[in-house]
Design a protein that fits this description.
Blueprint: H1 6-41, H2 51-60, H3 62-70, H4 72-92, H5 98-129, H6 137-170, H7 176-194, H8 196-200, H9 206-228
Helix pairs in contact: 1-3, 1-4, 1-9, 2-5, 3-5, 4-5, 4-6, 5-6, 6-7, 6-9, 7-9
Length: about 230
Amino acid sequence: MSEAATPAVAAGNRVSTTRIVGGAGVALAASVVVQNAVFVGSGAPAYGDPLGVVLAYHAENWGAMAVAVGLEAVNLPLLLLFVTALYGLVQRRGGAGADWSRLAVAAGATLSALFALVIATHIAVVLAADGLAEPTPAFKLIWQLHAAAFALALPALGATFIGAALATHASGLTRPWQRLLGVAGGSLLILAGAGNLAIADGSPLVFVGVLGFATWLVWLVVTGLRLIRGQG
């Protein structure tokens, strides 16, 4: 390969990585939306609902739960692909925002572990509900562990969101309003996560986290489409 071709090859690799990051972001958002639509559409209980309601739902909606928890096997690799490919893209663009991208990678790895725990405990709840006539202490404990893991996942998502938003902006990949969206949405997630005990006990504070979570999905789609089109 001639030296003259090297800049063109480097530019081609950068464009390819940009589209990978964008595609992973859009795919992740789409998968998460479908997953949550299954939960909402099947009438999933809130953490503050009576245990009898929680038991009845999980005993009667095995199929919906199988789809919803199965989608997490898609979400986790897409999340890790997004944050790691983003780090590589930031490095190729001169390294501006590299520290924020490292934060996104570290927080994203932590988030993946926590979401794995969220889904694993949810699977345990579904399996425990099969054949139970009424909630047992063990069933209650598993449900509470599931709620606690979800509450602790919120600040990890907030850190991932802020790191990714600041990294993409510093690298010239996104517009200023996308940075503001990331900081605002990530801060809401961290704020909600600080009330993890209350959220696990069914507090409406969870809706602060839900707002931050929705902001994350919007940011993923807007940023992902921008990168797929090669803008930035």
